[in-house]
């Protein structure tokens, strides 16, 4: 396991819930994934998910933690196997994200070590993810089933659920998911404009990401939170 001093599971869950945004990093190169993760943290999005599709994702997680310490909460997404869970935890991942529920993926042995965000879409899948032991449930792809209105509809009969809508969430609509009752949102391509990534304009990317925090702060101020 990583020896870097980091938050415990309860603290990680509280931070994710408080900051209300997770930056989802996908990249074809580990160096680029590291730069994107750094840009997100510098812009104030302290919860960063490095997907397992990134080559050497475990090394990216370890490096991000070394760079930022307790200024960031780093996890691994797109997890599909127990082996990937173990690699992620050995690298120091503080939260684990799956794209969907899987009867073949048993997480009970690892629940004490990390926050688990299990992917689901239908009401039945969401309840199954909770039954598996999920701390949060990733609702993906939320844009395909009605966006924020779908989250509101799910929470009306099941208000205790802690949902993380992901997929099609962007600067224009992400606050509506928070208003609908989502615990936080997952933000991927909308945080990292493709042209800026291709041109490796990391500072411009960071400035773009900061707009999300400003928008969220404005909403909190207007609502008196």
Written overview of the protein:
- With 225 residues, the chain is an alpha/beta fold.
- It has one domain (9-216): Aldolase class I (TIM Barrel), CATH 3.20.20.70.
- Helix content is 43%, strand content 15%.
- It has nine helices and eight strands.
- It has helices spanning 9-19, 30-42, 57-68, 82-90, 123-132, 148-155, 174-179, 194-198, 202-223; strands spanning 21-25, 47-51, 73-77, 95-97, 115-120, 136-139, 163-165, 185-187.
- The protein has an eight-stranded parallel sheet, with helices on both faces.
- Helix 2 packs parallel to helix 3 and helix 2 (30-42) runs parallel beside helix 9.
- The model has no long low-confidence stretch (mean pLDDT 94).
């Amino acid at each position: 396991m990583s020896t870097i001093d980091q938050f415990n599971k309860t603290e990680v869950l509280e931070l994710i819930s408080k900051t209300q945004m997770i930056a989802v990093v996908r990249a074809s190169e580990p160096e680029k994934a590291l730069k994107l993760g750094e840009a997100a943290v510098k812009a104030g999005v302290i919860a960063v998910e490095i997907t397992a599709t990134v080559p050497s994702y475990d090394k990216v997680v370890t490096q991000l933690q070394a760079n930022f310490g307790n200024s960031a909460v780093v996890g691994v997404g797109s997890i599909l196997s127990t082996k990937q869970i173990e690699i992620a935890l050995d690298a120091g991942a503080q939260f684990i994200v799956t794209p969907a529920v899987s009867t073949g993926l048993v997480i009970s042995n690892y629940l004490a070590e990390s926050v688990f965000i299990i992917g689901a879409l239908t009401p039945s899948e969401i309840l199954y993810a909770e039954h598996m032991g999920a701390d949060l449930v990733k609702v993906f792809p939320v844009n395909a089933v009605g966006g924020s209105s779908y989250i509101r509809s799910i929470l009306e009969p099941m208000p205790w659920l802690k949902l993380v809508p992901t997929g099609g969430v962007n600067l224009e609509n992400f606050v509506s998911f928070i208003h609908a009752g989502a615990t936080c949102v997952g933000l991927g391509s909308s945080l990292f404009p493709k042209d800026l990534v291709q041109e490796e304009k990391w500072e411009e990317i960071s400035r773009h990401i900061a707009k999300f925090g400003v928008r969220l702060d404005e909403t909190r101020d207007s609502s008196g939170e």
